[in-house]
Automatic annotation (TrEMBL):
This is Aryl-alcohol dehydrogenase. One of its GO terms (molecular function) is aryl-alcohol dehydrogenase (NAD+) activity. It comes from Actinoplanes lobatus. Its cofactor is Zn(2+). InterPro entries: ADH-like_C (IPR013149), ADH-like_N (IPR013154), ADH_Zn_CS (IPR002328), ER (IPR020843), GroES-like_sf (IPR011032), NAD(P)-bd_dom_sf (IPR036291). Its EC number is 1.1.1.90. Keywords: Metal-binding, Oxidoreductase, Zinc. The keyword Zinc applies.
Length: 346
């Protein structure tokens, strides 16, 4: 079938909307007509360094839409279901069967640009177009996904809310609810108030924690405060979350913890140095977190329930853009003008 997709021709290039061909779903695939897709920092970071040999590429990993076709082996969704898309996992390794699919031993399935067999369902004038990003590539009018990363959501739920649940909201809220699990009254320090950080803020506030937000962007800090955080000096926190991946911020986060406090690292980054004696003498735990250590099939419904109860007001983070304005939306995200741009498809 002929669809429209936002192609990135080479590393760092702009998004260009082109007509491309998409194969029908295989037995294990689900064809989804997109209604919305969030733009995440990961999309922009990968666009900047994506390998030439698997280009042009279609990114996007926070999709929401309606199922239009399913493969013969798919039993969890059916045609007409309203769904949100998340990351892909194999479903069979010990991490997946143990309830931690975010650490799937086949995590390469999210970043290889192809199906597991090396093929791509996308093409342009007979030449391969790469995709399968996080098992979806949702910067397109239609996408092929999989049973493990397609989650049914209520038809009444706005796609502007459903789309970001699959990554940024799941990562931030999951870090709090699944990993740190603070008690009411605990202090949680959140470093970086983008989509992930603010989702962590909302989740921690919903648990009755004292939340301290740290961000150099005044507008984002103001939004964090309106969601229930404070901007007090950070000292003696039970838990800290770094969403920036910056070494200087990580050092500051370690210094903000009380003895036996825990730091969760969720931001993309390179190398960071810290004082071993500070960590050792204070019994500080440092924990890496992917996708909030969440299993989307069970965790996204929990997030939807929190939203329904008014405890996770995701709409406060969202700015809507038509799909045709994807490059403007990406620019606004990269410059910090908006927190969570969500593309909609007319």
């Amino acid at each position: 079938m002929r669809i429209q997709a936002a192609l990135v021709e080479r590393a760092g290039a702009a998004f260009t909307i082109r007509d491309v061909d998409l194969e029908p779903p295989r037995d294990d695939e689900v064809l989804v007509r997109m209604t919305a897709a969030g733009i995440c920092h990961t999309d922009l970071a990968m666009r900047g360094r994506w390998p030439e040999k698997i280009s042009p590429m279609v990114f996007g990993h926070e999709g929401a839409g309606v199922v239009e076709a399913v493969g013969a082996a798919v039993g969890s969704v059916r045609v007409g279901d309203t769904v949100a898309l998340s990351y892909r996992s194999c479903g069979g390794c010990d991490q997946c069967t143990g309830g931690h699919p975010a650490y799937c031993l086949r995590s390469d399935l999210n970043m290889r640009g192809t199906r597991a067999d090396g093929s791509s369902p996308l093409s342009l004038d007979g030449s391969a177009v790469f995709g399968n990003f996080f098992g979806q590539s949702s910067f397109a009018t239609h996408a092929l996904a999989y049973q493990t990363n397609v989650v049914r959501v209520p038809a009444a739920l706005s796609p502007l809310i459903a789309a970001p649940l699959g990554c940024s909201v799941q990562t931030g809220a999951g870090t709090v609810l699944n990993v740190l699990r603070p008690s009411p009254g605990d202090t949680v320090a959140v470093f970086g108030c983008g989509g992930v950080g603010l989702s962590a803020v909302m989740a921690a506030v919903s648990l009755g924690c004292t939340v301290v937000a740290v961000d150099p962007n005044p507008a984002r800090l103001e939004l964090a405060l309106s969601l229930g955080a404070t901007d007090a000096d950070v000292t003696g926190a039970h838990h800290a979350i770094d969403t920036t991946g910056r070494p200087d911020v990580i050092t500051r986060a370690i210094g903000a913890l009380r003895r036996r406090g825990t730091l969760a690292l969720v931001g993309l980054g390179g190398k960071a140095e810290f004082d071993i004696m500070t960590v050792m003498y204070n019994g500080i735990r440092i924990r890496g977190v992917i996708e909030g250590d969440a299993a989307p099939a069970t965790f996204l419904p929990q997030l939807i329930d929190l939203h329904r109860l008014g405890r996770l007001p995701v709409e406060r983070l969202v700015t809507e853009y038509p799909f045709t304005e994807i490059e403007a939306a990406a620019h606004d995200a990269a410059t910090g003008k908006v927190v969570k741009p969500v593309l909609t498809f007319g």
